[in-house]
Specification:
- By secondary structure, the protein is mainly β.
- It has a single domain, classed as Tachylectin-2, Chain A.
- Helices cover 0% and strands 35% of the residues.
- The protein has no helices and 23 strands.
- Strand 20 and strand 21 form a beta hairpin.
- The radius of gyration is 19 Å and the shape is globular.
- The relative contact order is 0.17.
- It binds beta-L-arabinofuranose.
- Beta-L-arabinofuranose binds next to strand 3 and strand 16.
Length: 379
């Protein structure tokens, strides 16, 4: 899998040297990056990173950031672990087994790493690969949404991705998983958006290792493609959305397509790898507009599209983030203390695609609501 490097407009970074890290009492699952004391902000190709890792004691990625009632920032990331598995198109190198929650009181302040919040061994339906999670809060309960492979076997001997939910009274966990995956859920990368009227929606899905291409007729094909449908002149495979029931644990409807339109109002095509959806949905609302944001996977952009309903359709607007160091790019966007922040990840600490570190930087908006592209490297 080859990466593409692009340059764009530089913006203000945060944590330009290492951010401080502390660890919650009771944390027993520490691991240390080989270069955890390395604060050299220069990439192997000589460029300088825009921001520094928020955490250096463990590897983290896919940061889903939320500000709960206490005004602190809680980040629900993937917890990357070392593996001998080689990189492949299915993402087998992303072999994660548990989740740890991060907490920050102030932008640029120390980051607390929570104890294990949920372990795959405590999820009855799951076999492996605890990928990108998200979280929500309602009526005194915190909900952790997470994808994992179930215990079925496909043509590669691997399970189908499903999405589970676990609950806790504490935003840092530990979370207790429901015994089954969310009925009707499939694929990965759940992102729960709670609209201003309280209605919650789950966006989810991803192609290639995320398996969306195997659900094209609404039924899972365990012998389906490992990548996409090879239909470059057809509308691209869409991410999915389903409204959640008030219990926050079940879908209120059959998942629908999240359609991305080009400037002519036509669906973005499967061959348009710079614009089509790959994985990593994240939605936020600003000035009454819904921003659907996502990763383009093999072209390594974070993109955004704007709509007037949580269901879309969304009109493509541009890149949020140019390619980072490392294959994946997966993010969240949240308003905190009067500014908007982009949380993302790269491979600064390890140089390995499957051992990532989360970062944050300020996200700015133009007066018309469009977003200037951020370059993860400073000129
Ligand atoms: O971290 C594992 C997978 O890689 C995530 O689910 C994707 O979004 C990509 O970051």
């Amino acid at each position: 899998m080859k990466r593409l490097m692009m340059a764009s407009v530089a913006v203000l970074g945060l944590c330009t040297t290492a951010c401080g890290t502390s660890t919650d009492a009771g944390n027993t699952a520490q691991e240390t990056a080989a270069t955890s004391n390395d604060t050299n902000p220069t990439a192997p190709d000589g460029r300088h990173y825009l921001s520094q890792p928020l955490v250096r004691d463990i590897f983290t990625a896919d940061p889903s950031a939320h500000v709960w009632g206490d005004g602190k920032m809680y980040i629900y990331p993937s917890h990357d672990i070392p593996t001998e598995t080689k990189d492949d198109d299915l993402g087998n190198q992303y072999a994660m087994r548990d989740y740890r929650v991060l907490r920050m009181d102030e932008p640029g302040g120390p980051v607390t790493v929570g104890p294990v919040a949920l372990d795959v061994k405590d999820v009855p339906w799951a076999s492996q690969q605890m990928w990108a999670p998200d979280a929500a809060y309602k009526d005194g309960t915190y909900y952790l949404y997470f994808p994992a492979r179930d215990k079925t076997k496909d043509k590669n001997g691997l399970g189908a991705f499903r999405i589970g939910v676990a609950t806790s009274k504490n935003p840092m966990g530990p979370f207790k998983a429901e015994p089954e995956a969310i009925p009707g859920s499939f694929s990965m990368d759940p992102a729960v958006f709670q609209d201003t009227n309280g209605t919650a929606y789950m966006y989810f899905g991803g192609i290639w290792g995320g398996q969306l291409q195997r659900w094209k007729d609404g039924k899972y094909d365990p012998n389906g493609s490992d990548t996409d449908l090879k239909q470059d002149d057809q509308p691209a495979i869409s991410g999915k959305i389903a409204k959640l029931n008030p219990d926050m644990k079940t879908f209120a409807e059959t998942p629908r397509d999240v359609v991305i339109l080009d400037e002519q109002g036509k669906p973005v095509l499967g061959g348009d790898h710079d614009r089509r959806f790959f994985e990593a949905s994240w939605v936020f609302k600003r000035d009454g507009k819904y921003y659907y944001t996502y990763s383009t996977g093999d072209t390594h952009f974070l993109n955004y599209a704007i709509g007037t309903s949580p269901y879309g359709p969304f009109t493509y607007k541009g890149h949020i983030l140019s390619p980072v160091q490392g294959w994946t790019t997966h993010h969240s966007i949240v308003e905190w203390k009067g500014k908007w922040w982009l949380f993302y990840a790269d491979t600064q600490l390890s140089g390995k695609n499957h051992l990532r570190n989360v970062k944050m930087t300020e996200l700015r908006f133009n007066p018309d609501g469009t977003i200037p592209t951020i370059d993860p490297f400073v000129k």
